[in-house]
Amino acid sequence: MRRVFRALTFALFSAIAFAPCGTMAQTAASQPAPYKDASLPVEKRVADLLSRMTLTEKATMLSGSGWMESAPIERLGIPAIRMADGPMGVRAWMGSSAMTNAAGNPVKVESTSFPSGVDMASTWDTELVQREGQAIAQEVKALGRDMILGPTVNINRVPLWGRNFEGYGEDPYLSGRLGVAYVKGVQGEGVIPSVKHFDANNEEFERHRIDAHIDERTLHEIYLPAFKAAVQQGGAWTVMSAYNKVNGVHCGENTYLLTNVLKNEFGFKGFVVSDWASTYSTAPTVNAGMDLEMPGGPQMLAMTKTDRFKSGGSGAGWLVADKVLAAVQAGQITEATINDNVGRILRIIFLSGIFDHPHGAGGEVDTPAERAVALQGATEGIVLLKNESSLLPLDAAKIHSIAVIGPNAAVARTGGGGSSLVRPMHAIAPLDGIRERAGSAVKVGYALGVGMEGEDPAQDTPEARAQALQQAVDAAAHADVAVVVVGRYSKLESEGHDVATMDLPAGQDELIEAVEKANPHTIVVINTGDPVTMTKWIDTTPALVDMWYGGQEGGHALASILFGDANPSGKLPVSLPKRYEDSPAAANYPGTNLVVNYAEGIYVGYRYYDTKSVEPQFPFGYGLSYTAFAYRDLKVTPDKVAGDEPVTVSLKVKNTGSRAGAEVVQLYVHDGHSKIDRPVHELKGFQRVDLQPGETKTVHLTLDRAALSYWSPETKQWTADPGTFEIQVGASSRDIRLHTQLVLTK
Questions:
Q1: C-alpha pair distances (Å), 725 with each of 306, 351, 632, 652
Q2: Are 415 and 117 in contact (CB under 8 A)?
Q3: How far is Cα 606 from Cα 321, in angstroms, rounded to an integer?
Q4: Which residues, 6 or more positions from 558, have their beta carbon under 8 angstroms from its beta carbon?
Q5: pLDDT tens-digit series, residues 372-430
Q6: Is 0.85 topped by the overall pTM?
Q7: Is 275 considered catalytic here?
Q8: Which residue of the set 85, 119, 199, 275 is catalytic?
């Protein structure tokens, strides 16, 4: 009885004595975990969440859960990052491009098809590229996704690279400025971009096996700056590794690239994601700095069983949880390394806002505002290459008939092939745009001229070609003006393989020659993403226009340029060589025994043509207008500097013609005194300026010490040798209008 009484007394005492502690415990338990508090600094949230994760949960996050989804951790509310292909719009995310681009694919994701990267680069319009990034991000959110795989900032090293159309051309400074703009536009909407492909993905030939041998200076001056700018100036949240090897090591497990350069030298705080099926080991890949392997889950396992995977040199499934945990247990990977990998992913999940405000599907895509951005990009990106006797612009009041001819005339060739090819809800072909703009008073006829090589076997027979060519000649002969639209399409110019030749596809040169003989008022339009050989007909062509791959609004853009509703202002972001053999990389492509030596070094594009006095067909930065511009009063302030003091370069630009137009002022620096061999000049600034007839504006550009520097292999750092630099300003790399001097004293 006493034992019962004592027990009851103790229980009652305990209930009274410890009641406040129990209340406190309940109160603490009801408080949200710090990582769920959006008001806390991101780093505190990351640290708190990491401390709550098991090692298995952390290891799980290093590999995807599906084709385009990272692994969620539901216990802690960590969402999957839902991705979509890019960078020219939102593409299907349910499988490889080979599957989703197939004609019979039942799954459709339709969105705005923006102009190709090389088209947007031709605008030299950073504000417009940022608005493009913003518009694409808005569609990403509307479709319930979180991340777009773009921008592509790889350098156009060789004219035959199958993905040249995706990138921003041959110059690292231009590519960097545009990449930064795209990143800022995307991230401003809380969407994650992925700057790709790190690094030196410059050919599709054996892209999983090819080993690019590149010296350190060339890497730092040509192939790394665009990524550096995206990270340091754009604050990029993710970077995608490349398929290829660099100096003997796959990019996905390349410690020098991922850790030494990207994370340490550049200060990158985001996460590295592998390109799809480009991992080949567990511990070496994780330790090198790879944070997320894609794809994962059942889709990854299914992919590894295909013949294409087995024969193509692909690799996948190395960062799945069981392999990572086994490597940790074996002492090959430390938990501290795993914490860094996962912490980087969590940091971006918090920074982007998708943890606190997930993107829900159901929004509107292809809005009028988004179409307007696509149209402006396509229009500003068109480059007028030749215009003898002012054949352009066309005057609809004076012409009565137009013959629109060619394999790309009646079909909207919106972009190159592969993972970037967007399926738009509608697209305007050149013929449609011209007919719409010409109106009923102008008769617009059409003739195929020649079938697109490989597209329809029935059009490739000698009889079919002869008949199509004769129809084109007849149409041209009976029209006031002939417009011949030639180029490639998504099967000839694509991710996965390089372009076979710089020549136009079969029969197109002959078509141009025949039409020009039939009609002296012929306008040739190039609709492609790579340079093409023009030597067979360029001398007799009165007008030449490069419309690139203009996205869904390409036909409208072309018509506005042809009829003068818009004044052409595009400038080439890549040199157009006369012959493939003139390319500085021609002798070292595609490589021997799966090794490609970048023997041309820093002499890529105009750095080679201008320094070695090799005349291109059209130079870097070139583009005509329907008006003219005069430059004057170039000043450098101050004109003598020491250390890191910035310099302001100013000049006045006047529109001396009768039409409103836009000029792209380009600033080049010549260093004739350095201790090391340097190109004759390098682009270090530019500004697009809009001018009314007779209007003058002052353009201000800024130079810093970095603009005067080269990468020293000896000191392994950026170096500017004191001396006198020539500051050049012009309308292209070969049209320098003004120059002055800047003295660096130390």
A1: 57, 42, 19, 21
A2: no
A3: 48
A4: 378, 382, 430, 433, 434, 525, 545, 547, 550
A5: 999 999 999 999 999 999 999 999 899 999 999 999 999 999 999 999 999 999 999 99
A6: yes
A7: yes
A8: 275
